[in-house]
Amino acid sequence: MEEVLIDDNMVFDIDNLKGFLNDTSSFGFIAKENNKIIGFAYCYTLLRPDGKTMFYLHSIGMLPNYQD
Asked: What is the CATH number of domain 6-66?
């Protein structure tokens, strides 16, 4: 699973992931095949200058074998 959890040379540890997911404006998604995690995405809801909210997708990671 380590190869999935490395994004732009950032390694995500469990405590930081728990803090991220406990933030109500943060979202994380995983992609699975046969109960194996093959990818992930993380995103945020942000307040725009016009007062509306937007969904900001920051990063998507996928194992190389599944990118085609």
From this structure: 3.40.630.30
